[in-house]
Structure formats: structure tokens, C-alpha cells
Amino acid sequence: MTSHHGHDAHGPVGHEDPAHVHDVAALDGAGHPAARARLAAGHTHGPLALEVSGLWAGYPGKPPALEDVSLVVPEGEMVGLVGPNGAGKSTLFKSILGVVRPLRGEIRVFGRPVSETRADVAYTPQVEEVDWEFPVSVRDVVLLGRWRGSGPFRRWSREDRDAAEGALERVGVPELANRQVGELSGGQRRRVLIARSIARGARLLLLDEPFAGLDAGVEHDLLAILDELTHEGCSILIATHDLACVASACDEACCLNRRVQGYGPPADVLTEDVLSRTFERALVPIGADREFIIAEGNGSAGAN
């Protein structure tokens, strides 16, 4: 699938000036963190959905999970977040959601502090993090996207119900509304989680490994849904191990391993050098489709 922004105002994806790509070392002397974040993605002006500036974040008693991270997500674009397990992707998401308080640095969503923008952000967790055996219907799961923290119980309004029904229609599964979530397939579960984010009415979506374990056809369908959302102005930060997906469908790629190892057009960022630094092992390209094999010790040990 090709990016929907392949020929927009920012120019063809993958053909920008290589200076658009930066790593942390190149940014260290670039001034204020907010300016460095914009420089990191090559955006010196224009609206931003997310601006992470000089972020240090972590947990008590442990070394920082994120060190001096600066990145941006422009409005109406999809940015692919790539990195190994333990690279800090989940900590970054939790920081954007306000669950983890930064040790240093700043996060702004649509130009405002995180504490003022919770209704504008929706998070789709990995399917493994959800209790699918809980006896609840698909409609109820999607309605939870409308919850604004006003108390443990609430009566859903007609507007809430219409938003939930519309979201299920949008992701192509309106017939599942009354189904128990435990009966769903893997692809259906992904669609329901995305519907929950759509029902929320959020303008910034954080998606954590939405394609893990899915076949190519289901992944293509989900990417088409995300493509439509960005066309309508939604902004998406997607954490994934699928390099081919980032290469073909994302406007920008961010390689993260505690620090930002590279940020820019996927064609310029998803290189042997940047990915080897990100995953801390030698990655050898085996084709033109952003496929790499892992070279470890005695030879190849796997593929991304």
C-alpha cells in the first residue's frame, strides 16, 4: 500500500532532501527542545498534532527509559515508530497519555499540555493487553471510547450510541455489535479497538502493534481505514515491527531505542545503518521491500 501523502505539499515521500533525517547526536546543539523536535522531522512551520521536546521519562528506581527524545507528528499524517522490545515505545505512549510524568522535557498535543488534551487522544493497546474473556458485547467495548472519566458509572446518551454505531460501521463490522468480544477473530478484535478510538472522536490516535499476527489481507484492510482517517485530518502514531508497513504507508518513520536514532522519510530512515543502530545488531537488506535478515554470530537468525 502506498502512502496517501505521496505527492502532497511536503513532496513525494522518500524523495526529500536527506538532510531531513537527523539523529540525536546531530540535534544536541540545536537550541530549544521544541525547535529541535521540529528540526528532527523537517517541519519548521505548520500545524502539529504532537510535539515531543527533549523528553526524559522512566520509572522510580530504574534508569530512564527515554533519553532526550524529540519528535513530531504533523496533523493529518501517520508516523511509524520502530524499535526493539524495551526501546521505550510504551513509555512514550504512556507519557503522551499523561500516565507517566516526564522527568524532563515537554509534550504538547495540538499546541497544549497533555493535561488539557486527554479528550483529543485515543490509545489502541496491543490485543494481548485486553481481557477478551470478560463478558461484554462489542458495542459496550466501543462505547467505552466515549468515557471521559466522569465516574465509574454513566448512562450512555443517544449521541454516545450513535457514535459507537457509526464507528463500527466505519471499520466494517456493524453486524458484530451484539456479539460477545470473546467470540471475535484476531482481525475483528483489531477493528473493534480501532472503532473504540474512532468513537471517542479523538484527533490523535496512538496505535500499539495493531498488525501483529494478522495476515496480509486483514492488514491491508486496516491500513485502508487508517488512510481514510488521515485524509480526514486525524493524526496517527503507530508502533510496529512491520518495516514494510512503515515504508509503504507512513509519512515519516521514527527509529527509537531509548533515544531517537533517526527520524524522517521512511526511504531515508529505514536503512541498514539506522536500523542496525536501533536494534543493536547487524541487519542486512535482502530486497527492495524493506525486508532485513538479522546477522548474528554464526549467520542469519531471523527476518523482519
Describe what is shown at a glance.
This protein is an alpha/beta fold and 304 residues long. Helices cover 30% and strands 24% of the residues.
Describe this structure in words.
- By secondary structure, the chain is α/β, with parallel strands linked by helices.
- The chain is built from ten helices and 13 strands.
- Strands 6-7-8-3-9-10 form a six-stranded mixed sheet, with helices on both faces. Strands 2-1-4-5 form a four-stranded antiparallel sheet. It has a three-stranded antiparallel sheet with strand order 11-12-13.
- The two termini are 18 Å apart.
- Mean pLDDT is 81; it is low at 6-36 and 297-304.
Order of SSEs, N→C? HHEEEHEEEHHHEHEHEEHHEEE
The total beta strand count reads: 13
Question: What structural class is derived from the secondary structure elements?
Answer: alpha/beta
Biggest sheet overview = 6 strands, mixed
- Distance between the first and last residues' Cα: 18 Å
> Can you give the helix content as a percent range?
25-40%
Tally of separate helices = 10
Please describe the structure with a list of short key phrases separated by commas or semicolons.
304 residues, alpha/beta, 6-stranded mixed sheet, 4-stranded antiparallel sheet, 10 helices, 30% helix, globular, disordered C terminus
Topology:
Elements (H helix, E strand, L loop, with lengths): L23 H4 L5 H8 L7 E10 L8 E9 L3 E5 L6 H9 L6 E6 L2 E2 L7 E4 L13 H6 L14 H13 L15 H15 L3 E5 L7 H16 L3 E5 L3 H7 L2 E6 L1 E6 L1 H4 L2 H8 L2 E4 L6 E5 L2 E5 L1
Parallel strand pairs: 3-8, 3-9, 6-7, 7-8
Antiparallel strand pairs: 1-2, 1-4, 4-5, 9-10, 11-12, 12-13
Helix pairs in contact: 5-6
